[in-house]
Amino acid sequence: MVRAAIVGASGYAGGGLLRILAQHPQIEIGVAVSETYAGKPVSAAFPGMAKLSNVVFEGKGDGSRLRDCEAVFLAQENGKAMHLVPKLLANGSKIVDLSADFRFSDVSVYERVYKITHVAKEENRRAVYGLPELFRDDIQNASLVGNPGCYPTASVLALLPVVSSVDHNSIIIDAKSGVSGAGRAKFSLDYHYAEINESVSAYKIAGTHRHTPEIEQSLSQILGLDIAVTFTPHLIPITRGMMATCYAKLTEPIDTETLREHYREFYVDEPFVVVCDELPATKHTVGSNRCHIGLEVDERTGVITIVSCIDNLIKGAAGQAVQNMNLMLGLPEVAGLDTLGGQFP
Amino acid sequence: MVRAAIVGASGYAGGGLLRILAQHPQIEIGVAVSETYAGKPVSAAFPGMAKLSNVVFEGKGDGSRLRDCEAVFLAQENGKAMHLVPKLLANGSKIVDLSADFRFSDVSVYERVYKITHVAKEENRRAVYGLPELFRDDIQNASLVGNPGCYPTASVLALLPVVSSVDHNSIIIDAKSGVSGAGRAKFSLDYHYAEINESVSAYKIAGTHRHTPEIEQSLSQILGLDIAVTFTPHLIPITRGMMATCYAKLTEPIDTETLREHYREFYVDEPFVVVCDELPATKHTVGSNRCHIGLEVDERTGVITIVSCIDNLIKGAAGQAVQNMNLMLGLPEVAGLDTLGGQFP
Amino acid sequence: MVRAAIVGASGYAGGGLLRILAQHPQIEIGVAVSETYAGKPVSAAFPGMAKLSNVVFEGKGDGSRLRDCEAVFLAQENGKAMHLVPKLLANGSKIVDLSADFRFSDVSVYERVYKITHVAKEENRRAVYGLPELFRDDIQNASLVGNPGCYPTASVLALLPVVSSVDHNSIIIDAKSGVSGAGRAKFSLDYHYAEINESVSAYKIAGTHRHTPEIEQSLSQILGLDIAVTFTPHLIPITRGMMATCYAKLTEPIDTETLREHYREFYVDEPFVVVCDELPATKHTVGSNRCHIGLEVDERTGVITIVSCIDNLIKGAAGQAVQNMNLMLGLPEVAGLDTLGGQFP
Amino acid sequence: MVRAAIVGASGYAGGGLLRILAQHPQIEIGVAVSETYAGKPVSAAFPGMAKLSNVVFEGKGDGSRLRDCEAVFLAQENGKAMHLVPKLLANGSKIVDLSADFRFSDVSVYERVYKITHVAKEENRRAVYGLPELFRDDIQNASLVGNPGCYPTASVLALLPVVSSVDHNSIIIDAKSGVSGAGRAKFSLDYHYAEINESVSAYKIAGTHRHTPEIEQSLSQILGLDIAVTFTPHLIPITRGMMATCYAKLTEPIDTETLREHYREFYVDEPFVVVCDELPATKHTVGSNRCHIGLEVDERTGVITIVSCIDNLIKGAAGQAVQNMNLMLGLPEVAGLDTLGGQFP
Q: How far apart are CA D184 and CA D194, in angstroms?
C-alpha cells in the first residue's frame, strides 16, 4: 500500500479524497491534515465516515509526517500549495495539487488572475496539467500535477473532440454548478441556504471568472493558437453536480449522428467518459468519476450544442486527483474509482 | 367591476389567474371552469386560496355562463382554444388565450410545430401577440390576444433593445426553467420529484423546442428579416422561476456601462421591466409580474451576455395575461399587478 | 396614513415588513433603519422590491426620525429592543417588537433563557404577548407588543382549542422549520446550502430550544397551571414554511370529525386560521398570514395528532406583527394582510 | 461467485440492488428482470450504471432463468412475490422479498392491511423478518426473508434498546421521508416536483399508514405483549433519506449520557449502527447501509427523544436486502456494503 497524505482534508475536496482513499485497494491514508479538526476523528468533519475510517486529523505538525508519505494531495485554498511543494518535491513525493497554483504553464497568467505572487516558479515549470484525457503520458511521468478546476474539466472534455472543427471565435460555454463548488469554508449571504434555494443566478460572467483563462489555456494548446471563449457560470440549487452547455459554429456541415459517432470513437478507450445517446443529466454522474456527454447539431444555424455533466467534487476535484495519482504511481488508472457508482434516483 | 371567466382554472396558469383576479381592483372572477374540480371550491385545487376566494369551479356547462363574462381567459392545453374562440369573439368578449393557438401570425408555422390543424384561421388573423413591451398599441385595440410562452417572454425582453446591433446569425439563448412550466397535469418520470431534484438537464435542444419559432417570429418581426436562433432549454430543480441567458456578437464595440444605459432608457417607461446594475437572480422575480435584466460585454470576444429573469407563471403566463387584459379593457396596465411583490428571501 | 418605522429592516423579518407595508392601505413606511445598507434603496437588500418601493435605508441616525413615526416595528436580534423601547413608549409610539425581549411576563425566565439582563423591566410589565387569537383584547389596548416566535405561533394555535381536554403531561411538539427562520445574518456551516440541502436534522431538542418556555408560558396561562412540553425542532430543506405536528393524549374519547368540528367552531371568526378537512402542507400558507390546521384522532392509542402550518416569516413574524399593529392602531385587523395570497403550485 | 436474480430491477430498490451487486465481491448479477426495459442495458433505466455494469434487462421470460440463480431478490409491488415464492423455494433458492408479502407472522394482519388475499400462507410460515439487528440467527438459517419497510427499520432500530424501559403506551414516532420512498412508478400530483418542492406535509397519520402494524409487530415481539404506537409519516423535499424521531416516557429516571452509553453498548457489535454523540442528519447516511442514532432525555418531562437516520433506499431497502442475503448465504455480513460511503457534503 502506498501511504498518502491529504493536506486540507476537512474541506469538500478533502472529504472526497478521504472517502475515495478509504476504499482504494492500493493507496491508504497516512496523514490527514486539518487545522480546524486537529485531533478529532474524520467522522467529526464527515459523520458519514463513521465506521469507514479510523483516521484522526492532524494539525500542521512539523512536516516530517508528510515526508513519510509517498503520495501527497494538497487541497487547500489558492496560494498555499506553492509554499509546500518545493520541499515535498525535494523529498521525492508525488504531488497532486487541487488548487490553482500549478495549473498554468505561463505563471504570469496565474499571478494576474489570482492576484498572488508565485513563489515556486521553478517547480511550476515541472508541473503537468492533470487532465488525463489530454495529457495522460505527461502525467505518468510527472512528480507534480496541477489538478484542473471543475469548470475547465467539464468544458474541455466537452469541446476536446470538436474544437478543431469549429470557428474558434464562436465558442460559448454556459455552465451550471452545484453550491459545493464554492467550498466548505465559504460563509456568506451568497451561500446561505435561504438565498440560494429556489433560485438560479449567473455570476462573474463575460470573461471575469478565474476559470476562463484555464479553459482557454487548454483549448489554445490543442489548437496551437491563442483563443478566447465566452464563459458564463451559474449557481443552481443543487449540492453536487456540474453541467457545461457548450456552443460553437461548425466550419463544415455535419449531422448529429455522425458527430456523435466521432465523439464515441474519440473517447472509446477513456474509462471515465461516457458519450450518451440521450442528453445527460448531472444526477447520473454524482458520486462517480465519470463525465457524461451528449450533443446535437442544429442544422439550421450550424451551431453544435454539447452538454457535459460531472460531479464537481469527484471528476471535478477529488476523483480526478486520485486518477492522476494512480497514473503517477503506475497503478491502474481506475483503481479506487471504478466502483464509485452514479446515483440511481 | 368587469366579470371574467377562466377556462382551465385548476392548472398552474389558471391558479395564477385565480389568485391575481381575487385581488384585482377592477376585474372579478365570474366563472372558473375546471372539469377535474367541478362543483368544488377553488381551495380544493389551491388550498392557499382558502379565505381568499369563494369561487366554486364549474364543469364545461352550456357556454352561456361564459357569454356573460366580458373578459375571458383561456388556459387550456394547445388545440382547445381555437374551438371556443369563434363563438366568444362573436359574443363580443375580450379574450386572452394562454395556449399557443393564437401566437403565430403564420398559421402554417403553428400547424407544423404543434402538429394540430388550426380550425380558426379567420380569427387567428385578428389575433395580436401579447407582449406589451413590443405590441402595446395593437393589444389595446385587440379582441383576441395570444399570450406569449414563458421562454419567448424572457428571451425577447432580453434581446429586444439590442437585436438590431448584433450579428443576427450569432444569437444563442441558454434558458433554465422551473418545473411548474411543465404544467400541473404532467405526470411522468420526467417530473417525478426524485428524478428532477438535485439534477439539471437539457431537453429539446438544437431548435427542436416549440418555443424556438415563437422566439424567432418576434425577433424576425423586429429586424424585418427571417432569422434563426440556437435555443437550449434546461430543467432545473426549482418550482417557479425562469432565466434566459442570451448571447450575441456585437457588430460595433460598446462597453458594458453604455449598453446598460441603453437598456435603461429603452425600458424607462415599462412598469414591469427592471434593468439591474447587478446580475439578477430568478428568486427576486418570483411572485411578481416583473422581468429583471442584467448584462455585460466581454470586450475580448465581442460577445454580449444578457441575463433575463421572470416568474414563468406570472410574467410568463398569468400575470402577462392580466396585463394584456388590462390593456384590452382600457384599465390601468398595472391594475392588480403592481402590488404583487417579489420574494424577500 | 400612519407613518411607520422599521428598525432592522434588511433582515428577513424586516424584508417581510417592508413588503407588506409597501402595499398596506393605511400604514406607510416612514423610516427603514439598516446599518448594513444605510443610504441604499430597499432594492439593494431585496431586489424584488424594485418598482415596489422607493424607500431608502437609514443608519441609526439620531432617533428623532423614529419619534416622527406613530408605529414602530423593532426587528433586531434579542437584547436590542429593550434599549429603544423606554424612549419610544415615552414618545407615545405604538411598538411591536419582533425579538424575544418583551415576550415573557416573568422577566426572569427571559433572563435565564436568553442569558441577557433585562434593562426595561418596567416596560416589560406593560407588554402584551402578541398572539391575537389568544390576547386580542389586550393587544387592542396595548402600546407595546412582544410578537411571538414562529414555533410558539404554530404550536399554540394548534393546541389552543384542545389543551384543556388532554393530559397536559403528554404534550409533544415535533416541529419542522424552513431555513429562513435562522435569520439572514447567520453565516455558518449550519446554514451553508451544501450542508442543509438534501438533509433533515433535529437540533436543540429535549427542552433546550429557547422557544420551549415561550410555548409553555401560553399553554400554562390557558390552563392556569404550570406545564412542561417536549419540543423538538427540525431543520428541513425549504426556505420558508413551518409545520408543528402536535401530539397529546385525550382524557375522554372523541372521534376525529367531532374534534375537527370543535376546531372549526373555535376558530370560526378568526380571519387567519383555516381548519382543513385534509392534512395541510406548508406550501399553501407561504406568502400568506394564514395558519392551516388539520387533525386526526387515533382511537387505538387515544392520541390526537394536530398538524399546523404557517409561513414562518409572515404569520410567524412580519405578518403577525402587522396584524398586531392593526389592532393597536384601531385599523381593520386584516388591513394589508388579507390580499397576501398563498402559493398556487 | 453466487449468481443472483433481481425481479423488479428498474425500480428504485431494484436500482439499488443493481448498483450494490455490481460491486459485490461474492455475488454477481445473473438475471435482472424488468418488463418496462426488457432488452435494454441497465444504463437505460439508470444512466449512472454506464461502464459499471453490462447487464441487460430481461422481460418475464420462462422462469427457468430465475431457477439458475441461487439468490433471488424480489423487488416488486405488494402482492406479486407471493406468486413466485413457492416455486423458487421448491427450487432451493435463497429469497429476499422487498415487498410486504412476507413481513407478517400473522398473515391475517397482512390481508387486512394490504387488502390482498395471501396465496402463499404455507411459505409465509417459513419466512423470517429481515431485521438483522433483531433476528440475525433466524435469518442465517432462513430460505425466505421478508425485508422490512423503511419506516419500520428506522423506527425499530431507534426503539429497540429502550423499549423495555419505557411506558409502552406512550410511544410516538414522527417520521420524515424522502420522496424516493414512494417508488419510481408513482406518477401523480402527489409526487410532481412542483407540488412537493418547498413544502412539508403529513399523510396517513393516526395509525392509518401500512407500516404502523409492521412497527407494532416488532415492538410487540420484543416486549411479549401487544402494543399500539402513534405513527406519523411526513413527506419532505429530499430524494433520499429518512428520519424517525421517536418519543417515549421513561418508567425510571435516567440521564442522557447513561442512556447513550447503554445504546453504545447495545449496538457495539453491529456493523451498520452508529450511536452518535451529536444529533444525526439524514445526509450522512445517504449512500450507505448505516443507521445513525442520537438521543436525549428531557428530565423535566421524563420523555426520551431518539433520532434515527437511514437512507430509505439502502438500509431501508436494497442494502438491508443484501445484508440479509449475505447472512443467508453464509457470506460476511458486510460484503459489498462496508465500502458504501456516506455523502461528504
A: 17
